[in-house]
Amino acid sequence: MSAPRTSPPSPSPCAATAAARVPLLQARELCKRHGGIVALDTFSVDIHEGEIFGLIGPNGAGKSTFFDILTGFCAADSGGIVFDRVVLPTLQAHRSAARGIARTFQNIRLFGELSVLENVLIGGHRHDGGSVLGTLLGLGGARENERLAHERALEWLRYVGIEHYAERPAATLPYGDQRRLEIARALAARPVLLALDEPAAGMNATESAALGKLLRRIRADGVTVLLVDHDVPLVMDLCDRIAVLDAGRKIAEGTPAAVQRNPAVIDAYLGSAENGH
């Protein structure tokens, strides 16, 4: 079965050039403090439709804080975000999801006692229709919605390659497959932008390479990807452009090749990251 499409087909080159004049996501002058600690300091970035955009930096640089602001889990002290030409409200995760932003978390957040399939069903609930009451009463329309929702959830499991685990409790999956399940659950929400917070954490080289193939496929199927990870070879190989954060400030942005040559990036991050520190 072909992969389910999460958004309309990729635009033609001419359309893509026109669309690039207005970024899909515009973050402007974001500032955030946690007590006396500066998490983000006037951070701005543009992300264009159809790209894989990387965000890297040392631990505590502000990457996850940006994700939390983007997806409505915390509010910026100042600054703002425009997504798909609409200003995102603060502290409203459901609004971000409804606009087409889905995310995974640095620490896996699955419903461990529920089955793998049930976790994906939860991710797709906004689009699958029906009602709890209708399902409990056994109404025909509700039963059909439930059947279709199960089919779609299984398609997403096939898409990420873990359909054989469908009935297992999520907590029993190998670590790398739990990461894939998180991605399947996020994709079930049919996002325009998929924000991945350290999806390769804890993976070996083989698993990381397989993840890279999956992310390229996701992009090819019409989803823009925002990637945070400490796997420097993965990020450099996958991303069209990369921004680098250090102590809440953006110190560089550009192509992977340009970022790798940047002395400030080497001093702040790449030198230690590539040595495994």
Automatic annotation (TrEMBL):
SMART domains: AAA. It comes from the Bacteria. CDD domains: ABC_Mj1267_LivG_branched. One of its GO terms (cellular component) is plasma membrane. The keyword Nucleotide-binding applies. One of its GO terms (molecular function) is ATP hydrolysis activity. PANTHER family: ABC TRANSPORTER ATP-BINDING PROTEIN, CONSERVED COMPONENT OF ABC TRANSPORTER FOR NATURAL AMINO ACIDS-RELATED. This is ABC transporter ATP-binding protein.
